[in-house]
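Quick entry between incubations.
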Amino acid sequence: MNVIRRNGLGLVAWFVGILFFLPIAWMALTSFHSEEDAATNPPSFGAALTLDGYREFFGTGGGASPWPSLINSTVASVGSTLLVLLLALPAAYALSIRPVKKWTDVLFFFLSTKMLPVVAGLLPIYLFAKNTDMLDNIWLLVILYTSMNLPIAVWMMQSFLSEVPVAVIEAARVDGAKLPTILARVVAPIALPGIAATALICFIFSWNELLFARVLTGVVAETAPVFLTGFITSQGLFLAKVCAASLVISLPVLAAGFAAQDKLVQGLSLGAVK
Amino acid sequence: MTATTTAPTAAPSVRTEKRPSDRLRAWATRAPLLPALIFMIAVTQLPFVATLVISFFDWNSLYPDARSFTGFANYSEVLTDADLRRSVWTTVLLTVAVVLASLILGLVLALLLDRKFKGRGVVRTLLIAPFLVVPVAAALLWKHVLYNPEYGLFNGLLQYVGGPQPDWISNTPLLAVEAALVWQWTPFMMLILLAGLQSRDQQQIEAARVDGASDWQIFRHLTLPHLRRYLELGALLGSIYIVQNFDAVFTITSGGLGTANLPYTVYQSFYQAHENGLASAAGVLVVIGSIIIATFALRVVSSLFREEVSRA
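Done. Structure below.
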C-alpha cells in the first residue's frame, strides 16, 4: 500500500513537472516550425522541422539584426558582474573574516537598499543621464546593474566567506603567511564555488532587466530584453520567430541558472536560506 | 531607503580608541567596506532623495519653465485621480494574488519533491526552468504562443475537445498577467520551501512517527510550524519582487484593460506623459508600500540570520 502511494505521488510530481515545462517545450518545438505550421489551430505537433524561425530572428531574412542587442546585454551583464565582484569581495571580507564593528548593521543596510524599488530613482537617473549625455550609453546600465546586484552579492559572499574557519586563517598567519597568500591559498579554495554562483546569479539578474534598459537606452545601447519588446505587437505570422528569439535570448540565463542551481536559493533569498 | 530596522548587533565593544595606531587599524579594517558603501549610497539613495524632492513640484518636462512648488498636491492627485487610484489597487491585487497562488503551488510542489522517487532530479530541473526564462520572453510566450485566441496553444488544445475559443487576454486581462507570473514565480517559492523542508529535524519526525503520529499530524504540528518562517520569507521576497513588476504588465497588456500597476504608471506618466512631479509622487508611494513589506521582510531575514550565526 505504502509503495503504491509513494510511486503514485512520484507520478504526480512527474506530471506536474512536465506540465510546468510544457510551455517551454512547446516554445522550443514551435521555434523549429515554419510560420504557417506554427499558426494552425488545432496545433500541428508533427509538422516538418525547419530553421527558418532562427534565420528570421538573426536577421538574414531582412529585419533588424539582434546581434548588437546581444552584445550590449553581454557587456552590461558581464561588466556589471565583474564590477560587483570587485566591490563586494572586499566588503564581504570586512563583514566576515575581519569584521568591522556593528557589521550586522552594515549588512542589513545593504539588504535594505535592495528593497528600494527601481521606480524610486528612475526619474532622477533619467534626468541625470539626459543632462550628462549618458542616455543610450551601455556603461550607464553597467553602473545601475551593479547597484542592483551589489546587495545580493555582499550578502551571499558574506555567508560564503564566513564558512572559512577562522582557526585555519589564524594558523596560516602564525606560520608567517601574508594576507595575499592567505587569500589565495586558504580563503579562495573554500569560497570559490560560492563566488562563482554569486557571479552567475548577478549575471542572470542583469541579463533579465527591462525597466532601466527600456527607459535609458535607445538605438545604440539597446539590450536583448528591449529587443524582445519589439515583438509585443503582433506582426502577422511571426510565432516561430518570436519563439526562436525568446529561446535564444533565454539560453544564457537557463545555462547560468542550471550551473548555479545548488546556490540559487541562497542567492534569491539574499543568503537567508542555505 | 535607509536601514531603519534594528539588526542583530554584534556584542557592543566599549573599547575607546585613544591611540592613533588603534584608530588607524580601525580604518584599515573599514577600508575594504567603503567602496561598496559609497557606491550604494551614491547610486541608490541620492536618486531617491531627488525623487522625493521632485514629488513636491508641479513639473511637466514639456513645459520646463512652469515648474513650481506644490506641496502635497501631487500626492492628493495620485490618490484622488481615478486611474491612478485604480493602479494602486491593481498593484495590491496583482501582488497578493500572484504571491498567494505561487506560494500554495510552491508548497505542494516542495512537498512532492521532498520524497524520494525515480527521476527526482529531472523533475526538479523541469520545475526550475520557468523561472530561468527571461521575463520578457516568458511574457511574450504567454501572450502570443499560449493566449492568442486564433492560434494559441490553449485554444488549440480546446479545439481538440470541441471547447470554446475564448479571447483570454481581453476577457480576463489581470488574470492573464497573474497566471503568467504565477508560472514563473512558483519555482522560486518551491526552492525556498524545499530548502525549508530539508532543514527539518529528521530525528524529531522519526520520534513522532514511532510514537504513532499520522502523516497529517506530523505535517500539521511539526512541518508547518517549522516552515512558517520559510513561508513568510517566500511571501515577503515574492512581494518585493512582484510589487515592482513591470515586464509582464508592459508585455502582455501594455498596461491596458485595467492592468496598469504602479511601476507601469510611473513609467507611463513620465516617459509618455512627461509629468515628472506626478510620476515622482507615485514612485514615492511604491517606496512606502515596499518599506512596509520590507520592514517585515528584514525582521524575518534577521531572525533566520541570527539562528544561522548562533548555530555556527
